[in-house]
């Protein structure tokens, strides 16, 4: 029996036991004691419960208090699900998580346990992932422009893989880390990406030849090529052209005597389903391109740098309305008194663009509020705007949306808030970052333990990887304990 089927059977058995216990397993804090170094708390989900239920629970806990601070609920099981989905869709590509996307220690530890690699951009990020026991060979220092002292830190801590895209960078590395294994980053056509990166990073094909020649003169080892099509890629064909260009640079490297054996296809993978271009639509284009230009018998190792893919959908942010303003619109030219005195509403909440919603400015995100209380069917909706708590007029979260009339103390939820939110949040005006409450289903925890003990089988031969429905990863799905033992969902 294949490894993934053994694990699936194990999880179904765990679910069966939980259902037989009649829901006696409570949502109590639990330490991940088997993880190395610093521990972190998470809450086990009861059978049939999802992260949304924990959001409601936390809101109920402060219902009678004036301290209704914004908070996150993060489902670590969702990250596990994404990991299995990755290997189903991209069986040849090893993920190196982009730490800059979300550097929460629980996220890093979860992915470290799953055997993922890490894309680090600084000394601090390298220290973070090594603090949880990640070996240096599972780290790529994927910043083409590095401070000399930080290059030396990488050298002193065994991190050899690092990117470059200029002659100046080559000179710095040759002096500070002569044993480095370099990856040449090439420019791509990222004109159809939401966040373009080639305006800052990447060498042209002509420059690549010059850089390879210079690396040879400096006796620096170049082991491969990397690229990044930009965050929020909207055209999967961009990957095809970039992979083709990488093949061309590989051949250049062979001419200069380099043993090129690493291809890094970067990031640009969506982390939620509310996007025009789905994850599998991208991977269905990438796989044939890899097979064409870098066939499985070529000896080339292929990695990628997913960030938002892993964490976006795992985090839900709850914010509280702290103030409200009613603006009366006077519309002339109508005899209808109701039309003449319409109103718009301004809601002020306790997190904003200087905090978690920095994704609006930095990541071009478009966020949508979800009301914690379900509106009445006949409730009237108004044109509303949503603002953050700081004294800056720039601190606007939503310019215009339709909402019923809410009151101070009501809650709004924002889903898919795990990417480029907590990592770049500031404490401007003295407003603190929201607390993060981590949750995980018991079957997901069992699978994490199994992977830690036995390792993760990257080459998933059977593509029908399943997980028990009781893991409650999909919000909005109703779960029934009686059918738990046999129900499953495709990952």
SSE blueprint and pairings:
Elements: H1 3-20, E1 29-31, E2 41-45, H2 51-61, E3 71-75, H3 76-89, E4 93-98, H4 105-113, E5 117-120, H5 123-131, E6 139-141, H6 148-156, E7 161-164, H7 167-176, E8 181-185, E9 193-195, H8 205-217, E10 221-226, E11 231-233, H9 237-255, E12 262-264, H10 279-293, E13 301-304, H11 308-311, E14 315-330, H12 337-340, E15 341-349, H13 358-362, E16 370-371, E17 381-387, E18 396-404, E19 411-414, E20 435-441, H14 442-454, E21 466-468, E22 488-490
Parallel strand pairs: 2-20, 3-20, 4-5, 4-13, 5-6, 7-8, 8-10, 10-12, 12-13, 15-17
Antiparallel strand pairs: 1-2, 3-14, 9-11, 14-15, 14-19, 16-19, 17-18, 21-22
Shape: elongated
Report the total helices: 14
Output the radius of gyration: 25 Å
The parts where pLDDT drops under 50 for at least 5 residues are 13-38, 337-341, 458-491
SS content category: alpha/beta
**Overall pLDDT:** 83
Number of extended strands? 22
**C-alpha termini separation:** 19 Å
The main β sheet shows up as:
10 strands, mixed
Percentage of helical residues?
25-40%
* Residue share in β-strands: 15-25%
């Amino acid at each position: 029996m294949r490894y993934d089927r053994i694990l699936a059977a194990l999880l179904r058995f765990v679910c069966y036991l939980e259902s037989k216990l009649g829901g006696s397993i409570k949502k109590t804090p639990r330490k991940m004691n088997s993880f190395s170094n610093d521990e972190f708390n998470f809450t086990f989900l009861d059978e049939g419960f999802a992260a949304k239920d924990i959001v409601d629970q936390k809101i109920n806990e402060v219902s009678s208090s004036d301290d209704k601070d914004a908070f996150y609920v993060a489902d670590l099981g969702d990250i596990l699900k994404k990991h299995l989905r990755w290997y189903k869709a991209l069986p040849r590509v090893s993920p190196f998580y982009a730490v800059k996307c979300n550097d929460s220690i629980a996220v890093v530890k979860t992915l470290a346990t799953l055997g993922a690699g890490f894309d680090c951009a600084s000394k601090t990020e390298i220290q973070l992932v090594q603090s949880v026991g990640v070996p240096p060979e599972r780290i790529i220092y994927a910043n083409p422009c590095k401070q000399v002292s930080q290059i030396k830190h990488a050298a002193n801590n065994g991190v050899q893989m690092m990117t470059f895209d200029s002659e100046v960078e080559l000179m710095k590395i040759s002096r500070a880390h002569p044993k480095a294994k370099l990856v040449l980053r090439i420019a791509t056509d990222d004109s159809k990406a939401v966040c373009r990166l080639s305006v800052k990073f990447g060498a042209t094909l002509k420059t690549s030849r010059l850089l390879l020649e210079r690396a040879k003169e400096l006796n620096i080892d170049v082991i491969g090529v990397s690229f990044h099509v930009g965050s929020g890629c909207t055209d999967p064909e961009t990957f095809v052209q970039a992979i083709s260009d990488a093949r061309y640079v590989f051949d250049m490297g062979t001419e200069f005597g380099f043993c090129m054996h690493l291809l890094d296809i970067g990031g640009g993978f969506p982390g939620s389903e509310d996007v025009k271009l789905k994850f599998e639509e991208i991977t269905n284009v990438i796989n044939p391109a890899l097979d064409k230009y870098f066939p499985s018998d070529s000896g080339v190792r292929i990695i990628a740098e997913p960030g938002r893919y892993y964490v976006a959908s795992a985090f839900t942010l709850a914010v509280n309305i702290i103030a409200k303003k009613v603006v009366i619109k006077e519309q002339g030219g109508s005899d209808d008194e109701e039309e003449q005195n319409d109103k718009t509403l301004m809601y002020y909440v306790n997190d904003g663009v200087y905090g978690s919603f920095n994704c609006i400015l930095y990541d071009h995100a478009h966020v949508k509020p979800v009301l914690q209380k379900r509106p009445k069917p006949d409730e009237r909706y108004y044109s509303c705007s949503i603002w953050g708590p700081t004294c800056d007029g720039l601190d606007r979260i939503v310019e215009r949306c339709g909402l019923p009339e809410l009151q101070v103390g009501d809650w709004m939820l924002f889903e898919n808030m795990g990417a480029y939110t907590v990592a770049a949040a500031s404490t401007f005006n003295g407003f603190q970052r929201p607390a993060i409450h981590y949750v995980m289903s018991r079957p997901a925890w069992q699978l994490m333990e199994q992977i830690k003990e036995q390792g993760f089988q990257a080459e998933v031969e059977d593509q029908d990887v399943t997980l028990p429905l009781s893991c409650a990863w999909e919000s909005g799905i109703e779960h029934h304990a009686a059918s738990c033992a046999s129900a499953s969902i495709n990952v």
